[in-house]
Amino acid sequence: MLQKYLISPSFTQKIHKYTDCIIVGSGISGLSTAIRLAENSNIKIKVFTKSSLSESTTWYAQGGIAAAIKKPDSWESHYKDTITAGQGLCDPKAVEILTKTAPEMIENLIKIGTSFDISEGEISLATEGGHSFPRILHSGGDATGEELEKKLLSHSKSLGRIKFFPDHFVLDVLVYKNSCVGIIVMDIKTSSIEIYPSSNIVIATGGIGQIYDLSTNPSISTGDGIAMAYRAGASIMDIEFIQFHPTVFKAKDSRLFLITEALRGEGAYLRDPAGNRFMVGKHPMAELAPRDIVVKEIIRVMDEFGTDFVYLDATHIPESYLKVRFPNIISKLKENDLDLNKDLIKVSPAEHYLNGGIKTDYNGRTDIKGLYSCGESAATGVHGANRLGSNSLMEGLVYGWKIYNDILKNLSKKGPENEIKAIEGTDKILDKFKTKKIKIKKPYGITPEIRNLIHELKIVMTKKAGILRDEKRLKEAEEFINSYLNCNYLYNKKDLETLEFVNMLTVASLIIKAASLREESRGTHQRNDFPQKDDKNWRKHIILKKNNVYFENV
């Protein structure tokens, strides 16, 4: 049984004034929601992030953002490609909302000053795996996420209605009678535990990559939003579907560097250690097959040759073009004494994107009143069993827009008197948490024990609940997780890494549970003991909620 809070609200040292909307996360989905609320209302908005404002998955997104903005491409084609990639588990209406709205989102980005790359007087469009037409917009060649994050941050700060709280770790959502009433927060710099009341909370905390040994995600991606939503009573859906990026480069300092799929979109080949192209004949699109298919084939080749890499070959692409299109990749490889135009680059798969997450409806609402989610932390139904490349940034924009509309609509239903009553009601609910300041023993930093446990968790999840799974390995992973998940000594501590570790354990337990239940192979979920897709029995979503399991047919 999970404890309800990472740190008990009784340890609260301060309760702040009511805020109309709180957003947890400062990536594309959180910022786009905040911007729209600030531009179209006078409500108070607070944005929390446990690191710096720019440290988000968005910043590291190289490939681009997908939208059908030029004929003969169309939203219908984008829709079809997304549905195909999702292998039977996409929500058709959610995909339609995404693909129809995408061009408008691009126009909005341009209005706030976003610079997309231009070719011959028009926005340059690239191709990625699974896309029928060139529809990937990019900035700075392979620095799209960085450009978007910079522009969104700059614009949001210019509005003057959004208050930012970097270095604030949101621990849990406070819920009363299935409605949000606030969040518990630890100020990382002071270790103060504080409560921020609000009846509209948006979780946009990104991914879960740090529970795996190899991941393209930043170090902050420890699944905090999903864990806190689960503890609060929200439903978690499709969490067994975790996308591994096929081409990740390991630098000399052992850090991972994602090499965008757009490089294969521009003609780069995948070769086995003997120098042979191995995707030809495996799929009609060869190197541009959907990511799950490419990853499986890479694993097969690495097993056959006994290596931990395959080669990425861009030596036949003109050097002048590579310099314009992929400057960041060229620079990173140069730091490692490699030349993209002359050398074969060793690459291997690494955890990249969570297809599932906190279950939401078409307006970003969870099953807790006032609690929303968007971006990678959410399961909108768009991605199904396998995300189509470059749909993630667009999903954050589209569903951030849907959330803003829903929040404004609900706020407009209340007159000023009702709003005041709601605030007073929230304060009364929080009265039980008002205590004298209770000191928690201040930590001296992460202990060697926790550091070792985090490392062990990463290895266990990679080997037993990673790309290839089976009943035996999943059971072993479950035993490891359960041996620590309910240990009381991990709770009520002000040690950031210990609190993150509990969230990582929580998310890992959910992944293992869903992966054990799904006795088939579909998309990014691959079972060695159930190698075939089973539409008869498993064309349905697995939904986990407070130790209960539900199934929802597509």
3D architecture notes:
This protein is of the alpha/beta class. The chain has three domains: 9-241 and 355-426, FAD/NAD(P)-binding domain (3-Layer(bba) Sandwich), CATH 3.50.50; 246-351, Flavocytochrome C3, Chain A, domain 1, CATH 3.90.700; 448-553, Methane Monooxygenase Hydroxylase, Chain G, domain 1 (Up-down Bundle). Helices cover 36% and strands 19% of the residues. It is built from 15 helices and 26 strands. The chain has a five-stranded parallel beta sheet, with helices on both faces. The protein has a five-stranded mixed beta sheet with strand order 22-20-14-25-26. A five-stranded antiparallel beta sheet has the order 16-15-19-18-17. A hairpin with a 2-residue loop joins strand 5 (118-119) and strand 6. The chain is globular.
